[in-house]
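Long-time lurker. I teach an intro course on protein structure, and each term I like to show students one example going from raw sequence to a predicted 3D structure in token notation. This year I'd like something fresh instead of my usual example. Would anyone be willing to generate the tokens for the chain below so I can use it in lecture? Attribution to the forum is fine with me.
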Amino acid sequence: MTRWRVSGGGRRLRWVPTALIVCAACAVCVSAQARFRLADRAVIEAHLKSFSTKNSDRELTIRKWFAESGCKDSNLSEEPLERKLPPNVICVLPGETREVIVVGAHTDHVDSFGDGVVDNWTGASLLPSLLYSLSGQSRHHTFVFVGFAAEEQGLVGSAYYAEHLTPEQRTRVEAMVNMDSLGLAPTKVWATHADKALLDALASVASASSLPIAAVNVDGLGTADSESFARYQIPRITLHSVTQETWPILHSVRDQLNAVKMKDYYDSYHLIAEYLAYLDDTLGKPAMGTHKPVR
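-- Reply from a regular --
Happy to contribute to a lecture. Here you go:
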């Protein structure tokens, strides 16, 4: 997650209050529709522990894991950037239609502080596992998994990707789901910068699966790759785990493997896998159920 610098000695960061999200209906519908499989927790933890502090190595590792998860040939590619940076790495899981759900996470980290495990190896290393979760059966949507380069340099990789989509391709993207800095706590969502339909769907899935979700907004504090898609009116949502207490871990020497709470991290993976399967089943169809925020 890109942190904005705050000038002025002693200035306190303003944190937007947290709001819990719950679903008032539809638990049965969600559990009946969401079709996916889960990788073992040991696999998820092993991937997380296989981090490198070199951004170029991270991109190569994600590409390798995509291939091992069955993404090969023309469905696996790299998108070179104009600067001397690692490329975006892209895996396409073809669906029955040309309508697209983009699933993204940035692969880079801030070189000068910590190991960048939280920000954002926690997000990037889940991309191949989510491919595994969704590839067990046919999908309605085409899923595009992207490891974005150079997020920490100003959303460079995601901005390049979104900019180089054709106008027709952009109209076919029904959702962009971004993962950034997971595992510090139970799953959070940047609700003020999320499409309402995507937020409502997340509430349904969390309620049906009995997995926690809460809204923690980072307005004025930082940004994320989802915002590169917002400028083109593409529905987007960012899932994270940051709270006011854990925010100082990002871009610091404390960004280490031991900062990740493994149960919370696996629960986030479970929630996101189920959420993506639910979106595949429901996007473009009439909404089912009513979802109310509890403040």
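Some talking points for your students: The chain has ten helices and twelve strands. The mean pLDDT is 87.
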